[in-house]
Amino acid sequence: MEIEPIAHFKSPLTSKFGIPRQSGIVSGLRGQIVFEPRFRNAEALRGMEGFDYLWLIWGFSCNVDAAKHPTVRPPRLGGNEHMGVFATRSSFRPNNLGLSSVTVIHIDYNSADGPVIHVGGADLMDGTPIYDIKPYVEFTDSHPNVRSGFADEVGWQSLSVCLSESIVNEFTPDERNTLKQILSQDPRPHYHRDSRRIYGMPFAGRDIKFTVENGTVKAFI
C-alpha cells in the first residue's frame, strides 16, 4: 500500500528540537492543518464541528533513519534503559508513523487555503505530513484508571522557566505562555546535563537560546 499526505501541519516550531514529547502536554501550542489542493473540500469535514478532539496520523518526516533495532531508549527513563520499540512512543519506528490527539479550536472555511483546521496541543513540527484524520470519541477512546507501563513508574519533572526582558518585549502573552510550557518540559537530549551549555531552538520565527541550571531554564534571544 502506498500512502500520500492529505495535508501538512503549520507550527511555530520549525525544527525537531523543542517539539513536545507527547501531544496535549503543551496545550497552548497552536497549529494549523492545511490540506493538499486535491483534498481541499469542505464536504470532507462535514460534521467535524461536533467534535472537540481529533486523531492525526502523520509521518516523522525528519527521521531519515527508521528504527533498525527492536529496542529504543525512552527519554523518560533517562536514556539509560532499553524498551521494546512497540512498547514505547519513540519517534524512531519501522514505518515512521506518528499518532497524536489534538484539540479542535476552530475550522476556517474562508481561508485561501481552506478549509484549514486550527488545533491545539499538537506535537508536530512545521511541515509535517499528515496522512489521515479521525475524530476522537470519548466512549471508545478514553480508558480511565488503566496501567501505563513505565510512564506510571517514572514521573516527568517539569522545570521552572525565566524569560529574558527581550523575549517579554518581543512576544505576545500567548506566545510567551506557550514558550514557557515548551521549555518547562526540558527539550534537551536526555544525555545533556551541562549547565554551561547554551541550547538553541527556533520558535515563532525567532531563535531562542537557553541554559538549564538547578531545575531552572533561562531563555533569551
Automatic annotation (TrEMBL):
Source taxon at top rank: Bacteria
Keywords: S-adenosyl-L-methionine
Listed InterPro entries: TrmO-like_N (IPR023370), TrmO_C (IPR041369), UPF0066_cons_site (IPR023368), YaeB-like (IPR040372), YaeB-like_sf (IPR036413), YaeB_N_sf (IPR036414)
Coiled coil: none
Alphabetized CDD domains for the sequence: UPF0066
Domain TsaA-like, residue spans: 3-145
PROSITE patterns registered for this protein in UniProt: TSAA_1, TSAA_2
Membership in a protein family: Belongs to the tRNA methyltransferase O family.
Full protein name: tRNA (N6-threonylcarbamoyladenosine(37)-N6)-methyltransferase TrmO
Species this protein is from: Xylanibacter muris
